[in-house]
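yo, Alpha-tubulin suppressor-like RCC1 family protein is done. seq:
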Amino acid sequence: MRRYLSAVVAMVALLGSAPAAGAEAPSAAAAAATAALADGSVFTPVAPVRVLDTRQGAGPVGAGRAVTVDLSARVPATATAVVLTVTGTAATTGTYVTAYAHGTPRPVTSNLNLVAGDTRPNLVTVAVGADRRVDLYNNAGTVHLLADLAGYYAPGSGARYTPFTPKVVLDTRLAGYGDILGPGETRVLDLSRHVPASATAVTLNLTGITPSSATYVTAWPSGTARPGVSNLNLPPGSVRANLVTVRLGADRKLNLFNFAGQTDLMAQLSGFYTAGYGATFTPVPPRRVLDTRAGTDGPLVAGQTRPLPRPSELPANPTALLLNLTGIAPTESTYMGVWTRDDRVPGVPSALNLAAGETAANLAAVSLGPVPDLSLYSHRGRTHLVADLAGVFSVPASACTQDCAYGWGPNDRWQLGTAAPNDRGTPARVLELSGVTALANDLLGDTRYALRADGTVWAWGDNHTGELGNGWTGGYSAVPVPVTGLTGVTAIATALDTAYALRSDGTVWAWGSGDSGQLGTGSGQASNVPVRVTGLTGVTAIAAGPGIALALTPDGAVRAWGYDSPERSWVPVRVVGLPAMTTIAGGYVGGYGVDSEGTTWEWHGDAAPSQVPGLTEVTAVATTWYSFYAVRADGTVWAWGDKRNGLLGDGKLCADAVEDCYQEVPAPVPGLSGVDAIAASDGSVFVLRADGTVWGWGANRGHVVADTNDDVLSPRRVYNVSGATAITAAGAVAP
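structure:
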């Protein structure tokens, strides 16, 4: 993503504008407070309202003094933290402001930095004292302070947070987003394509770019009157950002009002709040986790990416952090970013914009990834950076005693559903899921799905084409989210970046990638919510592969769509030349099925279906790459096709250049019996035996054997899993 930083008026550097401190050294009291709130709180957004304005009677806050904001009439007694936009104005000298819970020691951190005469806001998420009060401390000179309440956190009912890699949802400099905002103009920001219908609030980074005159910007829910608050204050010619957490209108829209002159606006969406799933919030006593002035590495330099170790003593299963970033006296105008590295993200999400010589702060909602460290970036010049931890979003480990989902293998796309760092070891229990009846994963195992006994489908992992089906696209979800609008589901299937569900009424629904007709709607557009596959009713089974989707009807007919279907159809068409099928499977190319006589058939594109020789009494089939498998009624597994990577399970290694790397005739996989189910994906094969154990072989990315990439040439028991009732190629259902 290109970044635009126009020249701005130089500002005087603040000396001592952020309190000096070393790297993180949390106290025992801080650790105890974090542990006490391990289960977290949920969010209740409110209509934006001003709760403090020292210009109205109280007078400015003096040097070394604090003003107390009493929120007892605004938030419940159970509130643990509040979200405030704190604005400083008319400062008589350079200063900083610190927010903290009333009745607690003032931390060695800062939230807001000001030069003399400036007006600047910053979003503050801060714990409240036992009396529901917050203190705002001013370091030097006098300053007027304003505070606008956006919502509060408390245990009980409310909304939970789902973070993702920031994405641009508004940029008036670019085509398609509308023109520059004029004086007194309100712009409607429609987020219905970016968040699910259940979302009640969002967090976004709002940047004002080179306004023609001094102005302010207000964000508020559509369908309501504009409140007397502000979220962003802009001097002429400046580039400034402020994080905004704001309630959504019923139509998932926001209003953005510009007070004076003309200004461009950019908004980067960081996450949404909704009831029923996501992460809860744990406020922490503010503590400094980075200060480049105190370290040995010095300031960030132009174009440099520097690791920021994940802060210690976080609750289990963290998904996002709130970090207050303060940039100090850059040598050139610049922007700074903090993010978890994501190779699917073009460019660096900006979190803080700075003029040359300026010291300023902005709160950042940072989505955590599977790798332990965050990345810091500065675009131009040399800039010192301070980061203060304000809170953590995390998912409590809910109890599951029956029909739990487990996953194994790498976690570089949050595939394990645990919000834990990458772990190639023992199986991890997927958080917040119970009553699971079936599992599925896409070809690479990057997105995974669970069907629950209540007929709902849940998904986690990669979402770059909307394959989570939750109403948004991009990034990942570390924990399961519901596939929107699906009930009464009896079966699920997946391909590459596309998923399918069969409902009890016999209809088939699809979501994710659609560029090869995989959605079965006749359109090549992707969909981040389920859409009904055209013309299918009374379907009894579904299956899918990378280039094909299949449906079985009560008369045994097979209908297919996608790249490898007859005529490469983008809507379901019948596969001709097949007897009545009882079982179907999608392959790496084409489809496979078993007829009522237990004979296996294969087909691809417009070629006539053909029988697989030498197989009878087959009950199930599976494929991966160009290797194929059949389970027979006697519980044995037979394999044929490509031998490489040990995929035939016969203990033999086959080099790529050897001509006999392909076996035409099915042969039994040695040492396997009592097999009830089979699954295969991305070069690995797994079977579920009648004793509840899971066995696997083939290409290995930690799927079969931990801490190695070596191929597994013969069936091996997977991680000592026991009591399993269902499997996928990367997980199992077990007590």
